[in-house]
From TrEMBL:
The lineage of its organism: Bacteria, Bacillati, Bacillota, Negativicutes, Selenomonadales. It comes from the Bacteria. Residues 9-207 form the LarA-like N-terminal domain. This is Nickel-dependent lactate racemase. PANTHER family: LAR_N DOMAIN-CONTAINING PROTEIN (PTHR33171), LARA-LIKE N-TERMINAL DOMAIN-CONTAINING PROTEIN (PTHR33171:SF17). One of its GO terms (molecular function) is lactate racemase activity. Residues 282-422 form the Lactate racemase C-terminal domain. Gene3D superfamilies: 3.40.50.11440, 3.90.226.30. It comes from Pelosinus propionicus DSM 13327.
Length: 429
């Protein structure tokens, strides 16, 4: 008997038709009971901060407050719902609108448009406030804040650091380098210099040449994750006054945490684990994973999260099919293409990455390293010639991908299916 499963692709869907007996597991978030509205969840978190007083009690009249917000690739965090309530808290504490500065935590991402700023603020705030984009290359608007024990020089957005209070907002999901997003990531990389970000992210490589990615730098790991620990130190140097982060499930806010930037984030990570940490009994011959549709598959760069999670469910030497429309192309910068096209072996790519690290290079390297260890196919609008040298096959439809896999490996493949591959982290029992 065949089963049909809808998988998101950009703003549309593709239907996977697969023999039911071949399905090991449809890896979805764990069931959750929604007993509060999204606004009630937001309000409850703000009224019950963790390790901190309420935001309204932390601020004083005439003080300047900088609110750090995500960029449009994190639109799923529903900033338009929670930012008005954060502003209400600030107003309640005596902060005037003109003393509130919104900075978009771009890290090394592209600048946002004015319309994207308005979407992030939402209709209640869009006409009251403007948003400034952080520019990691703007040396005149970066200030030295110290150095971490990992040797990372911390240079941060000057306008943000000149304010009396720094408020971090955003959302928490698994992150392929930092373990989890949210929290400290809105300082590093969010409002950090390019050099700070590169130094931190270079910790993603194993100290031994030829061994590739560091085994402790991975989704869902914190205690031994060097990138996570380095980011925490950098965030501490910025002295955030308050954090508000959401956790989402099934397209809506499922939980929220507020308070001390570390203590609240610790609790938020527990929520993510309870929802998106999914136990599997065995790894599969074939994993079919959707990034989760737009904006999570806006480019190949963003799709790295899906690839890394899919690897956790795939047998060594197995096959992965990743659905990533990638209408904006490779993403990152020219380093992605250079890493993929400019070298013949994975080791050459690793050497180039170690010599001059960048996140875009790492993403390009990781895709190539994955294609070296697994059969990797992308269902994508990308030009197939772009990834040929990396031994990655690009096709236009899911049916085409399946026929290629079945022709090579037969049709009786134990298969895991990941409808929300960017979020769900398979954990082997």
């Amino acid at each position: 008997m065949e089963k049909n499963i809808a998988l998101k692709y950009g703003n549309e869907e593709m239907v996977l038709t697969i023999a039911e007996e071949n399905i090991l597991q449809v890896i979805k978030s764990n069931p959750i009971v929604f007993d509060k509205s999204e606004l009630e969840i937001i309000q409850t978190a703000l009224e019950n901060p963790i390790g901190s007083e309420r935001l309204a009690n932390l601020v004083r009249e005439r003080e300047r407050v900088c609110v750090i917000i995500p960029d449009i690739t994190r639109a799923w965090q529903k900033t338009d719902l929670y930012l008005p309530l954060v502003v209400e808290e600030l107003n309640r504490g005596g902060i005037r609108d003109e003393d509130i500065l919104f900075i978009c935590a771009l890290g090394t991402h592209r600048p946002q448009t004015k319309e994207e700023h308005r979407l992030l603020l939402g209709p209640k705030l869009a006409d009251r406030f403007q948003v400034i984009d952080h520019n990691c290359q703007d040396q005149d608007n970066l200030i030295d804040c110290g150095t971490t024990s990992f040797g990372t020089p911390v240079r941060l957005n000057k306008k943000a650091m000149e304010c009396d209070h720094l408020i971090l907002t955003g959302g928490i999901v698994y992150h392929f380098l930092a373990g989890w997003s949210g929290g400290k990531k809105y300082v590093l990389p969010g409002i950090s210099s390019y050099e700070t970000v590169m130094k931190n992210h270079a910790l993603s490589l194993n100290p031994i040449r030829g061994l590739g990615p560091h085994p402790d730098v991975r989704s869902g790991n914190d205690d031994t994750n060097l990138i996570h620990l380095d980011m925490l130190e950098a965030a501490s140097l910025a002295k955030p006054a308050f954090l508000f982060n959401v956790v989402t499930a099934e397209g809506r806010i499922a939980g929220a945490v507020a308070g001390h930037f570390k203590d609240a984030h610790d609790k938020g990570r527990e929520l993510v684990d309870a929802i998106d940490g999914v136990t599997i009994q065995e790894k599969a011959d074939l994993v079919i994973a959707s990034a989760g549709g737009s904006p999570k598959d806006v480019n190949l760069y963003q799709s790295i999260k899906t690839l890394i999670n899919a690897r956790e469910a795939t047998k060594p030497g197995g096959t992965m099919i990743i659905l990533t429309e990638s209408p904006e192309g490779l993403g990152g910068n020219a380093d992605v293409q250079k890493m993929i096209l400019g070298y013949d072996t994975v080791l050459e790519r690793e050497d180039a990455l170690r010599a001059d690290y960048s996140i875009s290079k790492y993403v390009g390297y990781y895709f190539c390293e994955s294609a070296d260890k697994f059969d990797l196919l992308l269902v994508s609008s990308l030009d197939p010639d772009l990834l040929k040298k990396a031994n990655i096959t690009i096709v236009k439809t899911l049916d085409e991908a399946l026929e290629l896999v079945y022709a090579k490996r037969g049709r009786n493949l134990k298969t895991h299916i990941m409808p929300h591959g960017a979020n769900t982290l398979p954990r082997l029992a």
